[in-house]
Design a protein that fits this description.
Strand 2, helix 2 and strand 3 form a beta-alpha-beta unit. It is globular, with a radius of gyration of 20 Å. By secondary structure, the chain is α/β, with parallel strands linked by helices. The protein has 2 domains: about 220 residues, 2-enoyl-CoA Hydratase, Chain A, domain 1; about 45 residues, Lyase 2-enoyl-coa Hydratase, Chain  A, domain 2 (Orthogonal Bundle). It contains 12 helices and 9 strands.
Length: about 290
């Protein structure tokens, strides 16, 4: 792993040492340039709590200032991805807020969960979700908010907010999901809360690839490692453009990409690629 320069440290206000990071509410592992986040409450199919939501949000926010991390894999322990918000530790307290007419508390929670998606979209690292088993509610949102999704035939993806009397409009689902699988398909899933199996999720474009359960994490990590070995400054620019151009017209998008590409042409990786091509060699990118 390349050393972090003094300049990078100067503009990295998080102060998080990701090489020795030890979060409280999920697993973390850094292998070379690839980090793996593991939701790890397998006895309950890895549900989220108030605390794990917040810690995930803060982690992805701090990854903006982590040049040593070039790609992230998100997965779950014990054969499941994530069963959503914990019924007893989240839904129960939220019902009590509702009974107490605590609209401020309810809105603070929904904004906090939405901030997790915002931070996943804003961090420069490509995020690869490795999904097996149950992937429901907020778990489906985390997979949706990732850049790439690898799944298994045994997986079940459900945006089940309607089943607890809520709208399908949660954490950006009504904006992001139609862009992945199409408006009609997204509407069906958000209105009904039904689950997609792995084959349907791949056919509809939610998954980029189907893998066997015992291989999905390895294949997702291998793909993330390949991204991390590539022109990572360019990857970060691609991710930013994909996100920003959702609200642009075609003329604005073309101009934005002209500016983005001109910036990338100033990187050392661009010169490395040219010199490697001339020498008939494979380029070795360093992300600068």
């Amino acid at each position: 792993m390349a050393a972090i320069s003094d300049t990078e440290r100067q503009f990295s206000p998080s102060g998080v040492d990701f090489a020795n990071f030890a979060p409280t509410h999920f697993g973390w592992r850094l292998d070379g340039k690839v980090a793996t986040v593991t939701l790890n409450r397998p006895e309950r199919k890895n549900p989220l709590t108030f605390q794990s939501y917040a810690e995930l949000r803060d982690t992805f926010r701090n990854l903006r200032y982590a040049p040593e991390v070039k790609a992230v894999v998100v997965t779950g322990a014990g054969g499941n991805f994530c069963s959503g918000g914990d019924v007893h530790e989240i839904i129960g307290p939220l019902v009590r807020m509702q009974e107490a007419d605590d609209m401020g508390g309810l809105l603070a929670f929904t904004r906090m969960t939405g901030d997790l998606v915002k931070e996943m979209r804003a961090c420069p690292q490509p995020i690869v979700a490795a999904v097996d088993g149950i992937c429901a509610g907020a778990g489906a949102i985390i997979a949706m908010a990732s850049d790439i999704r690898y799944g298994t035939p045994a997986s079940k993806v459900a945006f089940l907010f309607v089943r607890v009397g809520l709208a399908g409009a949660d954490m950006g689902a009504c904006n992001i999901l139609p862009r992945i699988i199409g408006a009609g398909r997204a509407a069906e899933l958000l209105y009904t809360g039904r689950a997609m199996d792995g084959a349907e999720a791949e056919r509809w474009g939610f998954y980029n690839r189907l893998c066997e359960s015992d291989k999905v994490l390895h294949e997702a990590q291998a793909f993330a490692a390949a991204l991390a070995a590539g022109p990572t400054f360019g990857h970060a620019m691609t991710k930013r453009c994909i996100h920003q151009e959702w609200s642009m017209g075609i003329d604005e998008a073309i101009e934005a990409e002209a500016q983005a590409q001109a910036i990338c042409m100033q990187t050392k990786d661009y010169g490395r690629a040219y010199r490697a091509f001339v020498a008939k060699q494979k380029p070795v990118f360093e992300g600068d």
